[in-house]
Task: inverse folding
């Protein structure tokens, strides 16, 4: 089974006047969740997060009204079909009730398979980031238990004369013997079979892209010496790609000369309404949906950017973020950003604006959204206007009426550390590496 | 940009360390006219930043309730920052600050409006206790004449060798304002643009911190400076800042008894206490000298963690000084530069002083451990000056001090000033000391500091005080 963490986004349009009713329904589901959390964990085990919200109609480029929408965003590990099936079985009633407010939802009786088909049909692509890779929901509790048990074991052993003086390797072997002696921990001795396969799977798109570009470069050189039609055609790929990119940059630069239209001031009451929902002690959620700035180039440039970012997803790193996703809706005219992160949004937002590197990276995406700071050549000048960035986020932040998280009390670092402990077991290491590994326990 | 020192209250550039006596007084106005007349009379007595008074200094700050009482129009009041308007005891701010349980404002001596609406903080500094007494009498008389009621009077006192009540050297790490640093090398993480601490100047983001404003029509006498980008608006915040005040009671005996219980010997208790603080009692940073204090290093503050102590084997990641100022190493960051840039965006100018009699005169931990009773009120009047309460004070309090997951930890709030509890398994009462072959974990930490009061204040520039004193509508 795949352990790659992925996202599913399903969206339909809905009449603006029905939003209030949908919101009430979603809020009631949220209230029910308080007592049904365990059931969710059992019945949809592939799911880490669910955000379900409504989006009011928004103005694009001051003239076009983008429709109101219902958006369901989940993150899951495993096969997409399984995940959708789980949702359709366990949440069939809820899905039926909520989405039936939309005219895009099929009329009449909907069985589970009809719901599966609906979810697939209405799902849209996205760029997805996960802060903890290759961890399944069932691993979360097991790896936490494993680390706690090893810690208790070592703390007890430390009291034994001579234990501390043993070599790192001897200590590691004792830990491994302890793990093997416990029925509830022994599974940790098995290697995670799909890990290598999943890593490769994540890297395949980047690999293909790299190979195509590299091949094109080689063909370009070989084409100088050999007159082959294959070389001549292949040699065009890299230059065309670079030419298109350069063209997009110039086109964007022209668009950047448009007068900057700032967001309207966000009221204290609105911010308060948002932050009052962030009462979870470890993990919280944020959804920002903004129309793009005027101009086709913004839509095209962002679409290209999101696809290129997808390619390097394996190497991406955003501190304190469990999952994040970016996508475009309504023919690219809306940018959707949703993140599940540690602590509260005030703290989380600083991860983007406090480091020069990161705020520059964020500008690559957010500078296309209406009201966000103006830029020059995408990342120059303006991207680091912290207050404008923060205002932009708050101005376009939406209230997520329903939010479910499988894990509510482990931070991203906790999940990663627990995994490091497990990965280090039964793995050949030098003494220095073992000392470093022991620091995770 | 040169600082307008004549318009800045002195506390922003100095701590008045030469003035050993100090008292903080919390007042409530009773009439608008009385309040304005009182401010008019106080104005020439306020020490500005250009002066270094040898005898006495006086500083004032106003709460949001105080500004409201003065009758400022809602447009002006709304221009203050949200957290200042909401106040420290607002339910959401309490959540962010972690003020629950023992620290819940319902237990505070002041700051909760049920115990009296505070309008003005007056900070009086004098060269010694005797002159302070006389100055106090004078100030109380002055307040009485204008119908300004004293709600609380909070004495302070410098302790032996700049220590705090637990017996550790305090106040060693201070941000330096670049515009005032003539001879110090300007360095990220050490020196800071004035806008981090004084409104009206550029901050680390190369922008002006949002400042309270006044429509020009409300300032007929043109007392306030115009906002650079907008001639129709005057800058009420220029040369002022926000002041955060927290009265933190310190449970000194509880602290050392806990450590003795865990450590089994006095030396071990001091080692554990030092691990919690991040410095040895004399101030030597553990990162510079992990096994014992070093008199040569006790004042050294030019150290980081990235190169020499990433794993916290010398100074634990959860140690107090590492949480409140992570310097060049944040566990969640991939580079030293990112860590330094992130950490430097959340610094504060600390200006508080201890209060209450020390448990022993020289505050030597060995002697403090001999003391068995600790029934007197003692602690720290924590005062910090920031241009952005949320980004600076609240961020540190929320994300670094109280968030138990800080730096990859699990159940560890700041061991010294964090709020420790175990709420149905959600714990913040542990402290981990990395080590080989396994970390030490101290559990069941009680609260060693308890909040007794607190409030957010606006610490205006002198022109702003003049405007407030003359504003009538």
Result:
């Amino acid at each position: 089974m795949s352990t790659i963490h992925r996202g599913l986004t399903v969206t339909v349009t809905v009449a603006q006047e029905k939003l209030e009713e949908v919101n009430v329904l979603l809020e009631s589901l949220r209230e029910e969740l308080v007592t049904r959390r365990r059931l969710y964990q059992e019945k949809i085990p592939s799911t880490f997060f669910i955000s379900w919200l409504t989006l009011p109609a928004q103005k694009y480029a001051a003239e076009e009204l983008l429709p109101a929408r219902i958006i369901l965003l989940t993150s899951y590990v495993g096969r997409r079909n399984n995940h959708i099936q789980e949702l359709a079985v366990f949440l069939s009633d809820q899905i039926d009730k909520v989405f039936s407010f939309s005219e895009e939802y099929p009329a009449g009786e909907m069985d589970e398979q009809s719901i599966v088909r609906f979810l697939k049909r209405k799902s849209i692509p996205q760029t997805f980031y996960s802060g903890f890779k290759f961890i399944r929901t069932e691993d979360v509790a097991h790896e936490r238990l494993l680390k706690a048990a090893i810690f208790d074991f070592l703390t007890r052993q430390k009291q034994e004369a001579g234990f501390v003086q043993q070599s790192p390797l001897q200590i590691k072997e004792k830990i491994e013997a302890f793990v093997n002696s416990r029925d509830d921990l022994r599974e940790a001795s098995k290697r995670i079979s799909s890990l290598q396969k999943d890593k490769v799977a994540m890297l395949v798109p980047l690999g293909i892209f790299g190979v195509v570009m590299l091949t094109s470069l080689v063909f370009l050189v070989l084409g100088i010496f050999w007159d082959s039609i294959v070389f001549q055609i292949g040699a065009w790929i890299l230059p065309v790609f670079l030419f298109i990119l350069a063209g997009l940059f110039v086109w964007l630069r022209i668009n950047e000369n448009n007068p900057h239209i700032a967001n309207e001031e966000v009221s204290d009451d609105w911010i308060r309404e948002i932050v009052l929902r962030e009462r979870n002690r470890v993990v919280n959620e944020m959804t920002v949906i903004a129309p793009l700035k005027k101009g086709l180039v913004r839509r095209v440039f962002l679409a290209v950017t999101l696809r290129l970012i997808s390619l390097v997803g394996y190497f991406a790193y955003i501190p304190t973020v469990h999952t994040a996703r970016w996508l475009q809706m309504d023919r690219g005219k809306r940018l959707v950003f949703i993140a599940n992160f540690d602590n509260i949004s005030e703290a989380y937002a600083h991860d983007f604006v406090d480091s020069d590197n990161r705020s520059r990276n964020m500008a690559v995406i957010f500078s296309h959204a209406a009201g966000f700071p103006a830029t020059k050549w995408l990342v120059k000048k303006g991207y680091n206007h912290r207050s404008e960035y923060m205002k932009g986020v708050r101005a376009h932040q939406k209230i997520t009426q329903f939010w479910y998280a499988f894990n509510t009390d482990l931070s991203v670092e906790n999940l990663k550390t627990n995994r490091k402990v497990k990965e280090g077991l039964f793995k050949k290491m030098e003494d220095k590496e073992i000392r470093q590994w022991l620091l995770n326990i | 940009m040169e600082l307008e020192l004549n318009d800045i209250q002195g506390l922003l550039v100095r701590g008045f360390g030469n003035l050993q006596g100090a008292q903080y007084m919390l007042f409530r106005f009773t009439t608008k006219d009385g309040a304005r007349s009182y401010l008019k009379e106080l104005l020439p007595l306020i020490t500005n930043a250009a002066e270094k008074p040898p005898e006495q200094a006086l500083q004032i700050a106003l709460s949001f309730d105080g500004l409201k009482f003065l009758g400022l129009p809602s447009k002006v009041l709304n221009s203050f920052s949200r957290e200042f308007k909401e106040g420290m005891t607002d339910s959401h701010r309490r959540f962010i600050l972690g003020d629950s349980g023992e620290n819940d404002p319902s237990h505070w001596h002041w700051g909760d409006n049920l115990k009296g609406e505070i309008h003005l903080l007056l900070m009086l500094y004098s060269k010694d206790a005797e002159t302070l007494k006389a100055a106090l009498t004078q100030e109380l008389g002055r307040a009485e004449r204008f119908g300004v009621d004293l709600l609380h009077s909070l004495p302070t006192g410098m302790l032996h060798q700049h220590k705090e009540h637990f017996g550790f050297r305090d106040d060693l790490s201070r941000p330096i304002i670049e515009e005032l640093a003539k001879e110090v090398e300007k360095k990220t993480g050490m020196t800071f643009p004035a806008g981090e601490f004084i409104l009206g100047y550029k901050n680390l983001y190369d922008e002006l911190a949002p400042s309270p404003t006044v429509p020009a029509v409300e300032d007929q006498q043109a007392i306030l400076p115009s906002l650079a980008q907008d001639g129709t608006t005057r800058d009420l915040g220029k040369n002022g800042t926000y002041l955060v005040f927290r009265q933190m009671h310190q449970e000194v005996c509880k602290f050392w008894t806990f450590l003795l219980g865990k450590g089994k010997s006095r030396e071990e208790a001091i080692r554990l206490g030092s691990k919690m603080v991040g410095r040895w009692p004399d101030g030597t940073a553990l990162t510079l000298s992990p096994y014992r204090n070093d008199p040569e290093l006790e004042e050294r503050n030019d150290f980081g963690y990235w190169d020499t102590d990433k794993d916290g084997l010398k100074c634990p990641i959860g140690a107090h000084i590492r949480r409140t100022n992570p310097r060049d190493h944040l566990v969640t960051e991939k580079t030293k530069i990112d860590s330094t840039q992130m950490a430097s965006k959340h610094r504060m100018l600390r200006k508080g002083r201890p209060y209450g009699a020390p448990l022993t005169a020289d505050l030597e931990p060995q002697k403090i451990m001999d003391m068995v009773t600790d029934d007197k009120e003692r602690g720290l009047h924590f005062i910090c000056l920031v241009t952005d309460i949320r980004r600076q004070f609240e961020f540190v309090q929320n994300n670094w001090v109280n968030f138990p997951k800080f730096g990859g930890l699990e159940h560890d709030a700041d061991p010294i000033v964090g709020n420790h509890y175990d709420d149905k398994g959600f714990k913040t009462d542990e402290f981990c000391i990395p080590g080989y072959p396994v970390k030490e974990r101290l559990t069941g930490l009680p609260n060693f500091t308890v909040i007794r009061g607190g409030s957010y204040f606006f610490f205006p520039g002198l022109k702003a005080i003049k405007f407030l004193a003359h504003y009538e509508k």
The CA atoms of residues 168 and 435 of chain A lie 6 Å apart. Chain A touches chain B through 48 residues (CB under 8 Å). Chain A has two domains: 5-134+260-405, 137-191+411-438.
